[in-house]
Design a protein that fits this description.
With 602 residues, this protein is an alpha+beta fold. It is built from 19 helices and 28 strands. Strands 4-3-2-1-5-6 form a six-stranded mixed sheet. The chain is globular, with a radius of gyration of 24 Å. It starts with 13 loop residues before the first helix and ends with a helix.
C-alpha cells in the first residue's frame, strides 16, 4: 500500500518539545523562532526529515507555520485547516490563527518587544517572506536573525535522514520533447529576462527540464536537487550522486554537469552577473549567497514553470489515457461501495484501501498522487481530512461520503473527488450538492477570451452557492503536472490568481460546500484549456475547457429542477461520454451494469 493510517499527529508532544526549543533559543540569545512547514526547495510535500512543524506541534496538514516566543506560541494555517489544527495541536500551548486573515508577520509586529531577536532558518523561508518579517519586526524595534543551524534540528534527536531515492529517466516519447530542446527554450527565456543565469530550486521544474523523475518526495516523483542554468554555458545539476545509476548519470551529463548538493551554496556565490530567481519561491539564503558574490538578482518567475504548465500533445495524450484507466478503477470502486456501504460494515479506512487496490489492479500504478481523503459525515466537512486509526469512522445509511483521491501513472497524474450518498439524501444535502454541481458545470462550460485568468472565472463556480448565502474556503482549481506534482503553478482558479490561462494547461475544477460538524460536498474533475470552436460572427479568439476526468457523478444527489436546460444538457452529455469511453474498460457483469445505471440521463 502507498498510504498508511497510523496516527500521524499527537497534541501531547507540544509542551515538552516547545520547552526543549525554548531552552535552545535562550542559549542562542533568541526571543523567538519561525518554524514553517518547508524544505530547502519550498516544496509542498517535504520529506520526513523536513517535517519540523509536525514534529514540534503535532499538526499534520500540508501548509502552516508556527511562531514560538519565550512566553507564547501560535500556529498559523489557512482556511482548509481551521478545524483540523484544533484537533491536532495542544491549544493550551499553540494558539491557532488564520494564515490569511492574521498574517504571522503582522502578528509578530504586534507582540514583539524592542530589542527582540527573532530567529529563522534562511533555507526554509523564501526571500520575499523574510523581507516581510524583517520589515514588520523593524517597525517594532526588533530584528530578524538568520541561524546557521536550525535549533529544531538540534533538539530533534531522532530526526530522519535526508532521502536518497533513485532517479529514473523519463522517456522522451512521454515527455514530448528532448531535454536539450527544453533547455534551449528555457535559456531563451532567461536571456529575454536580461539575465546571465537562472537558479532553479523546485524539484518538479528540474525533473521536467531534464526528463528525469525521482523518489525523494512522497506521492510526487521528484528528485530533491538544485540547478544553475547559464546562458551560453552548460547548466549544473546539484544532486546526490548516490541517486544516479550509470545510465541516468549519462543521460544527465549529455546536457549538464553534475555536482554534489554541498557545492550549491559556493556556486551561487561564484555566479556574479545578472541572476534570475524567484524571490517568492526561493530560499532567502539563495538570494544572500548570490548577492554575497556580487551577483545582481533579477526577481522573476522560475522560467520553467510556464513551459511546464503548457502541456504538449504527448503529455496530454498520456494524461487522457491515465484518466481513462483511473476512471475505470473509480467505477469498480464506486460499484463496490454502493454494494457494501448499505450493509453498515465499511469504514473510512476500508474504503480508502479498496480504492487503492482497484488502482493497483491496473498494473500501472506507480503511487498515489496524495493520501486519499476519505471522509464520512462530519469528516467530509474537513476539506483536507486525513483518516487515521484514531479517527476512522464507520459509514452508515444516510451518510454522505466524500472521497478525494488521485494516482501517479507514468503517463499522467490524476486527481478526482466524488461525493456519494448511502441511501437517501436529505433535501438540504441534495440542494447543496446541486448548487456545487451547478458551479462545476458552469466552469466546465465556460468560453472565455485569450488572456483571461482564473480569478475572472472563479465566480462561475461559486455563484449558485452565493445565491444561497454559502461559499467554500479553498480555491476552485489548481494546476496539475504530468507524472509530477498533483499541485503545480502558475495558474489557478481562485479568488486571487492573475496568470492568464493558456492552451495545454491542466487544472482541477473542484467547488465544494462544507457544513461544519455535519457533512461536506466536493465535485472534482480535471480540465484542459483548449482553443474554443469558432462561433459565426465572433470577433475574438476564445478558449474553453476539455473535461478529461471520466467518472459518474452521483445522480441521487441531484435536484434536476435546479439545473438550467444548459446545465442539464451538459450533465447528460458528460455521462454519455463517460459511459462510451469507460464501458470497454470495465469488467463485464456488475461493474458494467452499475456504470450503465449511473450514467442514465436525468
Amino acid at each position: 500500500m502507498f498510504q498508511n493510517f497510523e496516527v500521524v499527529s499527537d497534541p501531547s508532544v507540544g509542551g515538552a518539545r516547545v520547552r526543549l526549543l525554548r531552552d535552545e533559543l535562550k542559549r542562542l540569545g533568541l526571543a523567538g523562532f519561525l518554524v514553517p512547514l518547508a524544505d530547502e526547495h519550498q516544496g509542498e510535500y517535504p520529506a520526513a526529515a523536513a517535517l519540523r512543524l509536525a514534529w514540534l506541534t503535532g499538526f499534520a496538514g500540508s501548509a502552516g507555520i508556527a511562531v514560538v516566543l519565550a512566553d507564547e506560541a501560535s500556529i498559523f494555517v489557512d482556511g482548509r485547516y481551521t478545524l483540523q489544527v484544533r484537533a491536532q495541536v495542544d491549544t493550551t500551548i499553540f494558539t491557532p490563527r488564520h494564515l490569511v486573515e492574521e498574517p504571522p508577520h503582522l502578528w509578530l509586529k504586534s507582540v514583539a518587544k524592542a530589542g527582540d531577536r527573532i530567529g529563522f532558518d534562511p533555507w526554509l523561508i523564501t526571500a520575499s517572506e523574510a523581507a516581510r518579517y524583517a520589515t514588520a519586526l523593524e517597525a517594532a524595534g526588533a530584528s530578524l536573525v538568520a541561524v546557521e543551524r536550525n535549533p529544531v534540528d538540534t533538539v530533534w534527536t531522532d530526526q530522519p535522514a535526508a532521502p536518497k531515492g533513485a532517479v529514473a529517466i523519463y522517456p522522451e516519447e512521454r515527455a514530448g520533447a528532448a531535454a536539450a530542446d527544453k533547455l534551449d527554450r528555457v535559456l531563451s527565456l532567461v536571456a529575454d529576462a536580461g539575465a546571465d543565469a537562472a537558479v532553479i530550486t523546485r524539484p518538479d521544474s528540474i525533473a521536467w527540464l531534464f526528463n528525469i523523475r525521482g523518489s525523494d518526495v512522497a506521492h510526487s516523483p521528484e528528485p530533491l536537487s538544485f540547478a544553475i542554468l547559464r546562458v551560453g554555458a552548460r547548466p549544473t545539476l546539484f544532486i546526490d550522486a548516490i541517486k544516479l545509476s550509470a545510465p541516468v548519470r549519462a543521460h544527465i551529463e549529455a546536457v549538464a554537469d553534475v555536482a554534489a548538493p554541498e557545492a550549491f551554496a559556493k556556486a551561487l556565490e561564484a555566479l556574479g552577473g545578472a541572476v534570475l530567481l524567484d524571490k517568492a519561491g526561493s530560499a532567502a539564503e539563495v538570494v544572500r549567497r548570490v548577492e554575497a558574490g556580487n551577483g545582481r538578482v533579477i526577481d522573476g518567475a522560475d522560467p520553467i514553470i510556464l513551459p511546464k504548465a503548457r502541456k504538449n500533445a504527448a503529455e496530454l495524450d498520456g494524461t487522457r489515457a491515465a484518466h481513462l484507466r483511473d476512471g475505470a478503477a473509480m467505477v469498480r470502486f464506486l460499484c463496490w461501495f454502493d454494494r457494501e456501504a448499505p450493509k453498515g460494515q465499511l469504514d473510512e479506512i476500508s474504503a480508502a484501501q479498496a480504492l487503492e487496490r482497484f488502482r493497483y489492479d491496473t498494473g500501472l500504478l506507480k503511487d498515489l498522487s496524495f493520501d486519499t481523503i476519505a471522509g464520512v459525515g462530519p469528516h467530509a466537512a474537513i476539506p483536507h481530512y486525513h483518516v487515521s486509526t484514531a479517527t476512522n469512522r464507520r459509514i452508515a445509511p444516510g451518510d454522505i461520503f466524500l472521497v478525494d483521491s488521485g494516482a501517479q501513472y507514468e503517463d499522467g497524474t490524476t486527481d478526482i473527488t466524488r461525493t456519494v450518498i448511502v441511501g437517501t439524501p436529505t433535501p438540504e444535502m441534495a440542494d447543496r450538492f446541486t448548487r456545487v454541481l451547478k458551479g462545476h458545470i458552469r466552469l466546465a462550460r465556460a468560453r472565455f477570451p485569450k488572456g483571461t485568468n482564473g480569478t475572472q472565472l472563479d465566480i462561475l463556480a461559486r455563484e449558485a452557492l452565493w445565491d444561497a448565502g454559502l461559499d467554500f474556503d479553498h480555491g476552485t482549481g489548481h494546476g496539475v503536472g504530468v507524472y509530477l506534482s498533483v499541485h503545480e503553478g502558475p495558474a489557478r482558479i481562485s479568488k486571487v490568481n492573475h496568470v492568464p490561462l493558456d492552451p495545454g494547461m491542466l487544472l482541477s475544477n473542484e467547488p465544494g460546500y462544507y457544513k461544519a460538524d455535519a457533512w461536506g460536498i466536493r465535485i472534482e474533475n480535471l480540465i484542459v484549456v483548449r482553443e474554443a470552436e469558432a462561433i459565426a460572427g465572433g470577433e475574438r479568439p476564445m478558449l474553453s475547457f476539455e473535461t478529461i476526468t471520466m467518472c459518474p457523478i452521483d445522480r441521487r444527489l441531484v435536484v434536476a429542477e435546479l439545473l438550467s436546460p444548459q446545465e442539464r444538457a451538459w450533465f447528460d452529455a458528460y455521462h454519455a461520454e463517460v459511459r462510451q469511453k469507460l464501458l470497454p474498460l470495465v469488467p463485464e457483469g456488475e461493474p458494467r451494469a452499475w456504470l450503465i445505471a449511473a450514467t442514465e440521463p436525468l
